[in-house]
Amino acid sequence: MTASPAPSEPPGGWPLVVALALCQLVSWGSIYYGFALFVAPMEAELGWSRATINGALSVGLVVSGLCAYGMGRWIDRRGGQILMTAGSAGAGLLLLVWSALDDVVVFYLVWIAMGVAMAAMLYQALFAVLTRTYQVTYRARITVVTLFGGLASAMKVLRWQMVHDIAAALPAVAARHQIEWYMPSTVSSV
Fold first, then answer.
1. Does a structural domain hold residue 186?
2. Cβ pair 28, 149 in contact under 8 A
3. CA-to-CA distance for 128 and 123, rounded, in angstroms?
4. How many CB atoms lie within 10 A of CB 157?
5. Which residues make Cβ contacts (< 8 Å) with residue 66, sequence separation at least 6?
6. Whose CA is closest to 88, among 6, 11, 183, 1?
7. Considering all CA atoms of the chain, what is the largest pairwise distance in Å, rounded to the nearest integer?
8. Comparing 42-46, 58-62, 184-188, which segment has the lowest mean pLDDT?
9. CA distance 157 to 152
10. Which of 1, 21, 55, 157 keeps 20 to 30 A from 167, CA to CA?
11. pLDDT per residue over 85-123, tens digit each?
């Protein structure tokens, strides 16, 4: 009886992993970790309570959790390239809207949509893609991505709207890089 051959992995996967790790760093920093830094300035400028502001993040996290199952099915059937790219681009647009809003209802709508974007682009989606694409070395690749993502908590801000305007462009740039530079054709079929 012969052993079955090890699953083959796409060549050149480490540049992809580093690029995706940088995308996670930007995404986690601008969306999740950055949120806490924006609460006090938003409270002072907009007059909303901390509970109201933090409630939007809570709603977004619940939506993200509820959407995770659908995102997993999408990745299983169609791969993660389109989904993660759309999530990154959508998050960038939502950050831009967030920086300009002054209505609490719109703020909550932004965070409902952000929950969908987070489910499409953050760890749960990326880890599924890495596990399916790199069946032998996925643990090492996930570890690298997680280490980069952990650095996102170190961000500092001066003015919350300015940071959001700048950060809004970063997921869109990351999405473009995912499409054009780093996503090998084999990943789109995963």
1. no
2. yes
3. 8
4. 15
5. 115
6. 183
7. 72
8. 184-188
9. 12
10. 55
11. 899 889 988 988 998 999 999 999 999 999 999 999 988
149: domain CATH number?
1.20.1250.20
Q: Is residue 92, in this structure, part of any structural domain at all? A: yes
> Which structure tokens are listed for 94?
């939502």
What is the sign, positive or negative, of the torsion defined by CA atoms of 122, 86, 11, 75? Answer: positive
Token pair for 122: 């953050």
Can you tell me the mean pLDDT for 19-29? 83
| Distance from the first to the final alpha carbon of the chain | 30
How far, in Å, CA of 95 to CA of 75, rounded? 25
Predicted pLDDT of residue 103: 97
Side chain identity, residue 130 = L
Residue 5 lies in a domain: no
Which amino acid does the sequence have at 153? S
**Segment 43-47 long-range contacts (CB within 8 Å, at least 24 positions apart):** 45/160, 46/102
Q: What angle in degrees, to the nearest 10, is found between the helix axes of 123-133 and 13-27?
A: 170
Q: Which two tokens stand for residue 60?
A: 């977004």
Residue 111 has which token pair? 């965070």
Give the angle subtended at the CA of 112 by the CAs of 109 and 114, to the nearest 5°.
105
